[in-house]
User: Fold this.
Amino acid sequence: MANVSVYNMEGQEVDKMELSDAVFGVEINEHLVHLAVVQQNANNRQGTQKAKTRSEVSGGGKKPYRQKGTGHARQGSTRSPQFTGGGVVFAPVPRDYSFKMNKKEKRAALKSVLTSRVQENKLIVVDDLKFDAIKTKDMVKVLDNLKADNALVVLNENDKNVVLSGRNIDGVKMALTNTINVFDVLNHKTLVLTKDAAKTIEEVYA
Assistant:
């Protein structure tokens, strides 16, 4: 089991914590991590792009000029793709880009990125995060104390004061244990977990 330090909001080490190897010490599967990121990005695509084919653009009912004798190639419509104002060849149409991953594959991918954060010393555990009021500067101060740059902060419960204090900080994202995903973990330099959040993740994914 990996031993990590537990810090308070002032950045002082106050305890040690053992992380379960079943979640934070697995063999990293790069293929599943890549697949999970591709899937999340694909599922987020709207897929609403559209262009008109020659059958959909208006006009073009009349033959532009006679078939023979002009010296030009024969043409049947001014809405052919080679004409200005014509349709688009193989025009894009609305489509669904999403695809599915097995539940086991998703869990394995998340465990892989959590393990990578432990191995790279980019995982910080804080004993608790509590604010009396919504203060962005207080959250900035805590992250500075923890030396957590470009951090994904994961809470066990939706604490309004903490979430609203952190969501406007550039490069920082607030998340809950039930919304954590592979893309967000990889997209931030540091992963900050509260002690309760770390225990919940272990219980859910072990």
In short: The chain has two domains: 2-46+100-205, 50-93. The chain has a mean pLDDT of 92. The two ends are 13 Å apart (CA to CA). The beta strands are 2-7, 13-19, 123-126, 151-155, 173-176, 190-194.
